[in-house]
Amino acid sequence: MEGVFAIDITKESLLRFTNSVEEDEENALQYARLIVDLASAMGALDGFVIYNEYRLRSDPNKSPFTGIPLLNTEKMLDFIKFDDPVPRQLAIPVPAYVPNMDSPFVTVDTQPVPFPPEGKSVACQDLGLGSESAGGSNVYTISLSDSSEEDFMRFVFLPKAGPTGQPLLDRPDYRQFKRARLA
Fold it and tell me: Would residue 162 count as lying in a domain?
């Protein structure tokens, strides 16, 4: 997008479209920024952007572009592979440069954790990731670390509850849901 110098994303949109549901707003924003940075580094970040030239008239510090982040979870987590037998925890280097991180890696807990009922539900159901307080029946914890600090950010993978045989990261096949409901 030539000529686009900035895209404004409202705090509410950033939190909503990254499934950031932490109690403390500052923690929620840190998680949201980190997950967007990670998705960007992995080439898994797109955006839905709207142009409105009148935004500049009301405030010259605003961009005429406003949007929401769209994270491609499948592309973002593509580097996580499991061998047989699957170990309880697995540390995997992140295959991309992530700003302000030295040799980043993720630690994946391969056993699902039954999440307590007080977990908050996520706003963006199509996104398979959420902040650590995101609820789900069974979630997988992923910790982000680098060479200088271990486990500085945790998030959870929320497997999709789709029809049998559907890969966990695929978007729901609503036609298949309908066929199952009618059967």
Answer: no
